[in-house]
Design brief:
Layout: H1 2-19, E1 22-34, E2 37-50, E3 55-74, E4 87-110, E5 113-128, E6 131-147, E7 155-169, E8 184-196
Antiparallel strand pairs: 1-2, 1-8, 2-3, 3-4, 4-5, 5-6, 6-7, 7-8
Signal peptide: 1-20
Keywords: Signal
Protein name: Outer membrane protein beta-barrel domain-containing protein
Length: 201
């Protein structure tokens, strides 16, 4: 999993340097809403590509992690000890990693205030140290509000809200999934800074 995420990050950097107009670094909270994974502090790295005067596209990586007390007994899955005792869990070390893309309309609300809103789709990895990591496809609605040229510079202030519906997990043999046949509704609420790689007029 670490090698896969590292490869995605390098691909993200390559695409950013070649095509991107704007890079966003954000932090905030991700809500999952499950008893064993309610939510966590999160951070994100996103990039925006212009597709015209009123349309933009983007890709982003987000990560959320927490440690949460939760008591659960799991059935014994050892084929060599079928009469063994169930495994007890008292806390989960949860993680949610996301790779998503979006296409959004651009709306100028004021001379320096811009709204992006549009559909998104991505791949999400939900896991815990105590259980298998599961991959889920998902769709959502990306929305971000940008206050441009902070103090006359290329830096901007960003606020984003991103609700998503994660579908049932991709099938894997002999995996111990918590949410395998379950759809998850999650959302991110984050704020941060962005930087214009190309000078804005």
């Amino acid at each position: 999993m670490t090698q896969f995420l590292s490869a995605l990050f390098l691909l993200f950097l390559a695409a950013t340097s070649a095509f991107s107009q704007e890079v966003l670094l954000t932090g905030g909270y991700t809500r999952v809403g499950e008893n064993s994974f309610t939510g966590a502090a999160s951070g994100g790295l996103h990039t925006v590509f212009p597709l015209g005067r009123h349309v933009a596209a983007g890709v982003g990586l987000t990560a959320a992690r927490n440690r949460q007390n939760y008591r659960e007994f799991l059935p014994n899955a050892d084929p060599f000890d079928p009469a063994g005792r169930p495994r007890a869990i008292t806390e989960y070390h949860n993680s949610l990693y996301s790779l998503q893309g979006f296409v959004a309309g651009r709306m100028q609300l004021a001379p320096r205030l811009e709204l992006l809103a549009g559909p998104s789709a991505g791949l999400y990895f939900v896991g815990a140290r105590e259980r298998s990591t599961e991959a889920k496809a998902g769709v959502g609605l990306w929305s971000s509000l940008t206050y441009r040229q902070l103090g006359g510079s290329r830096f901007n202030v960003e606020a984003l809200f991103h609700p998503r519906l994660l579908l049932t997990s991709l099938p894997v043999d002999d995996a111990d999934f918590r949410f395998g046949n379950q759809r998850l509704f999650i959302w991110d609420a984050q704020v941060g800074l962005s930087y214009d790689l190309r000078k804005q007029p």
